[in-house]
Amino acid sequence: MNEVEQLKVRLRQFAEDRDWDQFHSPKNLSMALIVEAAELVEHFQWLTEEQSRSLEQEQLKKVQDELADIQIYLIRIADKLNIDLLDAASKKMDANAVKYPHEKVRGSSRKYTEYK
């Protein structure tokens, strides 16, 4: 069992032990995920590009906690919908490689529909 699978089982047990599974529908979990993503954004709001790359330790710890919350909700949603996150990410990267061929998009932030 890989580390993502181990964490998925641990999160599932954590929710079951607290009788929270009743609240963990994909709808509710996806809304909670967005809340956590917004909390992550708050840590970078108003920072310059350079400041966002060199957070102080205390701020970095807060960002780490928000990223952990995001990952927890993401894994729970995937568990509820029986999605293998690693496989889904791998397939998405394969699709992105076709959409964004490096020889056409290198150094550009344009959307794939703008350079076809």
Description:
The protein is mainly α and 116 residues long. It folds into two domains: 3-83, MazG-like (Helix Hairpins); 84-116, no CATH class. Helix content is 71%, strand content 0%. The protein has helices at 3-17, 26-44, 49-53, 57-80, 85-99, 102-105. It is globular and about 50 Å long.
Q: Give the name of the CATH superfamily of the largest domain.
A: MazG-like
> Could you spell the SSE succession in H and E letters?
HHHHHH
Number of helices: 6
Q: Quickly give the CATH architecture of the largest domain.
A: Orthogonal Bundle
Write the layout of secondary structure elements.
Blueprint: H1 3-17, H2 26-44, H3 49-53, H4 57-80, H5 85-99, H6 102-105
Helix pairs in contact: 1-4, 2-4
Short description:
By secondary structure, the protein is an all-alpha fold. The chain has helices spanning about 5-15, 25-45, 50-55, 55-80, 85-100, 100-105. The radius of gyration is 18 Å and the shape is globular.
Annotation keywords:
116 residues; mainly alpha; Helix Hairpins; 2 domains; 6 helices; globular
